[in-house]
Amino acid sequence: MQSEIHESLSYLFIHYALLVAYVARSSDIITNSLGIPLWESATLFSLAFGGICYFGSQRLIGAVNGFLVIGILTSFTSLVVVASGNLQWSSLLEANFAAAPQSIPIIALSFVYQNVVPVLCTNLEGNLSKVRTAIVAGTAIPLALFLVWDGVILGTLPGIAGNSNVSDPLELLRSSNGTVGPIVEAFSFLAIGTSYIGFILGLSDFLADLLKLPSGQNKPLPFLLTLLPPLVLSLLDPEIFFKALDFAGTYGVLVLFGVFPAAMSWSERYSDELEAPVPPIVPGGKFTLGVVMGGALLVIVSEIVKDIMQLQGLH
């Protein structure tokens, strides 16, 4: 019972923090584009995408999401073509493995999709082949985009690193090419839109389950509880939640989607109290589960040590 409470709190914290970040960033983009107040932008974004999730059929939601994905691929391709003009291939041969562990929390946060798996299984009517294809393809495509984008950033930085006033690689790209800015805004908005839809569906379904409310698009309470808090909190002080994202990536995501699932699988498979142990679906057995739990715990512990050292440095 206690572990279920911890899982529920972690789930809610991660999803609300991410939704706040999505609303805050999208409202910035809309405000910069249309020149309307921030609260109007945030409300417009929440109502538009929340309305699609609430009123739209599965076919409509799928069509909207497909349109957004096509836009993402188009804008991403344009961004890569424009940004890679100063690409230096020799720079891609350089490596800094000591810095790699610091990227794990962000990678974990970027590839969180487990929240929509129950909705995905329902929409695909439990068809294992379709579910597997959706998960594999849905992970492979963003991974490919991440790798290409990382290659462009790492290969282009030497050509634009002369601007010492800007430390953010994206800002360096913006400063080197005026065309990059609008493309980045379009790509960011489309990417946020697809993520926002997935998190709205996942969190509203979770809340309906948690509160024992009937799930479905004709039941407004789960959607109101999903849409309103991020909208309000993003307008109050979004900076707090952008800082919380770092915490969520390290502790929330790695605990909820790294430690807990592996520990639960271990318990289901190898507990002495079970009369008929659950057969494994994924190969690897104890070794695979141990690697997943150990890797997640290693990152968490290293981040705790780093945070403690930083606090000591402040004193």
From TrEMBL:
The chain crosses the membrane at residues 6-24, 36-57, 63-83, 95-113, 133-157, 178-200, 248-267, 287-305. Keywords: Cell inner membrane, Cell membrane, Membrane, Transmembrane, Transmembrane helix, Transport. It is a multi-pass membrane protein. The keyword Cell membrane applies. GO terms for biological process: amino acid transmembrane transport. It is found in: Cell inner membrane. One of its GO terms (cellular component) is plasma membrane. This is Tryptophan/tyrosine permease. It comes from Setaria viridis.
